Amino acid sequence: MRSIARTVTTTRSLVASGGTTVNSKSVAVQVPVTGVVVYVGGADVTTANGFEVALGATISVDLTGDELWAVVASGTQTVRVLEENA
After folding, report:
1. Are 11 and 70 a contacting pair, CB within 8 Å?
2. pLDDT value, residue 23
3. Which domains does the chain have, with CATH numbers?
C-alpha cells in the first residue's frame, strides 16, 4: 500500500496508473473539504467531461492497465491518493 499527495492544476495531471489484467490496482482519491472541485477521468479529462469529485469526497476505482487523470477549473488542489495492489 502507498499513500501519495498529488497537486492538481488546470493542466490535467496523472494521479495514478497501473494494474494489469491479472492484478488490478485499487485506488482511492480524497479531495479535502477546502479548496476547489476536482474532475477525474482518462488522459482526455477536462472540466467539461470529467467526473466531478466534490470537496470532502472520496472516490475509489480499480485500475486495470489504465490511468487516472485529474484537472481543476481554476487554481490548484492537493488530493490524497491511496494505492493498493490486489
Report:
1. no
2. 72
3. 2-85 (2.60.120.770)
Average pLDDT over residues 59-83: 95
Are 32 and 78 spatial neighbours (Cβ–Cβ below 8 Å)?
A: yes
| Strands 66-71 vs 13-18: parallel, antiparallel or unpaired | antiparallel
What does the alpha-carbon distance between residue 1 and residue 34 come to, in Å, rounded to a whole number? 26
DSSP string, 43-82: TT--TTTSEEE-TT-EEEEEESSEEEEEE-SSS-EEEEEE
- Residue that is written with C-alpha cell 500500500 in the block: 1
Question: Which tens digit of pLDDT belongs to each residue from 18-50?
Answer: 866 667 789 999 999 999 999 999 999 999 999
**Mean pLDDT, the chain, whole residue set:** 92
Which residue is associated with the grid cell 491479472? 22
